């Protein structure tokens, strides 16, 4: 594989994503996605409507993985190395990476050309040829990148809060309004809003693995205010690069998606493949 740079929502109120930070609506959501299923190891599969689930990677010895935003590649940690599978070829892009820790997942840049990963409290990024430090943060778990590439967010391994790292300045700030959390799923364009799984003081912290589903909370990283999601039975949510929010909704035969515009209005509804109903949703394409 020729390795070029590898690694890269909708806010529910008008002011959530300023127009300068979010593109205009570009058209209907396709329904394409990447899912992960655990069965004697993880199977990562790409779904496009009408074509079923196509396997991207079978991971027998890795619990730390992430699918690229273009739906083509999988980055994962195994044997102390960060590897990327692109089609039938696997390339090692970094070594001396902590493995066996489920929450220390890599994170793809929005353009699917670079991968961020954790070494100690440092977040590094590699394009497969060179690597550099983006900054230090306590939020090293389930890192996610904002669609504009400016911020990375993750939760602390102790579940004590969520932290947002500015990759331009290298500074990390604790997100207001989140005391405990054990999953970060998405950041809005501009990094203002984060989708997290919050915990109560008596809730179990979990093992740090990818959740099959969870009740999402949207938090304003500046004010700490929680933004209501006007959809019942929500089990996840992803911001798109244009500022819309795709909310995953629990169903009986199959889960569905509700697509919200920046005012929180449902503009589309799509149905997931029934085979993915008990699988983790890694990417909305």
Describe, in plain words, how this protein is organized in 3D.
The protein is an all-beta fold and 285 residues long. Helices cover 0% and strands 44% of the residues. It has no helices and 24 strands. It has strands at residues 33-38, 42-48, 52-59, 64-67, 73-78, 81-86, 89-95, 107-108, 115-119, 122-126, 131-136, 141-145, 151-155, 162-166, 172-174, 181-187, 193-198, 217-220, 226-227, 234-239, 245-249, 256-260, 266-271, 280-284. It has a 4-stranded antiparallel β-sheet with strand order 3-2-1-24, with no helix packed on it. A 4-stranded antiparallel β-sheet has the order 4-5-6-7, with no helix packed on it. A hairpin with a 3-residue loop joins β1 and β2. The two termini are 22 Å apart. The model is unreliable at 1-25 (pLDDT under 50).
Summary, kept brief:
This protein is an all-beta fold and 285 residues long. The chain has strands at 33-38, 42-48, 52-59, 64-67, 73-78, 81-86, 89-95, 107-108, 115-119, 122-126, 131-136, 141-145, 151-155, 162-166, 172-174, 181-187, 193-198, 217-220, 226-227, 234-239, 245-249, 256-260, 266-271, 280-284.
Give the key terms.
285 residues, mainly beta, four-stranded antiparallel sheet, disordered N terminus
């Amino acid at each position: 594989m020729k390795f070029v740079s590898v690694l890269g929502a909708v806010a529910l109120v008008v002011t959530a994503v300023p127009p300068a930070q979010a593109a205009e609506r570009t058209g209907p959501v396709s329904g394409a996605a990447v899912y992960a299923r655990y069965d004697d190891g993880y199977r990562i599969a790409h779904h496009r409507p009408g074509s079923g689930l196509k396997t991207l990677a079978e991971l027998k010895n890795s619990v730390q993985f992430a699918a690229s935003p273009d739906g083509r590649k999988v980055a994962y940690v195994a044997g102390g190395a960060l590897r990327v599978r692109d089609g039938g070829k696997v390339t090692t892009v970094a070594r001396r990476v902590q493995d066996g820790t489920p929450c220390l997942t890599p994170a793809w840049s929005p353009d699917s050309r670079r991968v961020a990963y954790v070494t100690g409290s440092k977040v590094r990024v590699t394009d497969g040829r060179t690597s550099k430090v983006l900054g230090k943060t306590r939020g090293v778990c389930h890192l996610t990148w904002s669609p504009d590439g400016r911020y990375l967010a993750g939760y602390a391994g102790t579940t004590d809060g969520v932290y947002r790292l500015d990759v331009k300045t290298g500074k990390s700030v604790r997100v207001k309004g989140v005391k405990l959390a054990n999953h970060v799923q998405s950041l809005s364009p501009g990094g203002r809003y984060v989708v997290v799984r919050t915990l109560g003081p008596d809730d179990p912290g979990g093992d740090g693995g990818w959740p099959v589903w969870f009740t999402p909370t949207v938090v304003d990283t500046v004010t700490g205010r929680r933004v209501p999601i006007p959809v019942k039975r929500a089990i996840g949510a992803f911001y798109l690069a244009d500022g819309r929010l795709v909310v995953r909704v629990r169903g009986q035969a199959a889960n569905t998606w509700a697509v919200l515009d920046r005012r929180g209005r449902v503009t589309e509804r799509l149905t997931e493949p029934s085979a993915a109903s008990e699988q983790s949703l890694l990417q909305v394409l």
